[in-house]
Amino acid sequence: MKTEQKLQEGIKFLASQYPLDEITVILLCSHLNIKRQTFYYHYKDIYDLIDSIFMDESHKIVSNNQTRDDIINELVHYIEEEYKFLSIISKSNANDILQAFFYDVIYYQIINEMSSYNISNDKKGLIARFITNSLSNELVYRIYNNNIFDKNLFESIFKFFYKNLEDNIKG
Length: 171
What we know:
Blueprint: H1 3-15, H2 25-32, H3 36-42, H4 46-63, H5 68-81, H6 83-90, H7 95-113, H8 121-144, H9 151-168
C-alpha cells in the first residue's frame, strides 16, 4: 500500500475513534507507526490529507464514468459507502472540503452535460453554479443533520434538474 493510501486510511480510522478536530499529525503518525517527516513529505496538515481523499474520489468518480447516470450512480454509491466518514467531516472544520468535493463532482457533470447547449458560456456557468450549489448544499445539510440518505430521492432530484435543463434550456 502506498504511503498516501496508508495515511488516508489511517485518518478515516482515527476519525471514527476521535473528533476530527482532535486528530493531530503526531497521533496519526503514531497510529500508523511512521515518522512525522513522512507525513509532511506528502501533506502540509491534516486538512490537506482530507482534501486529498476527496480529490482522489472526485477524480475516480468523474474519470471512470462517462454518462450522467454513471456519475450520479457512482456519487450516490460513494455517499452510501462512506456515509459515516462524510458525517464526521461535515461536523468538523473540514466541512468546506466536503462541500467543495460535492460541488466539483456535480459542477463537472452539469457543465459537461451543457456542452452542446446553444447558450452562452456565461449562462451555462450561471445555471451550473445555481444547480450545483443547490444540490451540494442539500447533500451536506442532510449528511450534517444525520438524515437517512435516500438514494432514490437524490437520483430523482438529479434527474429532475437534468430533465429541466434538457426541456427548457437546450438549444
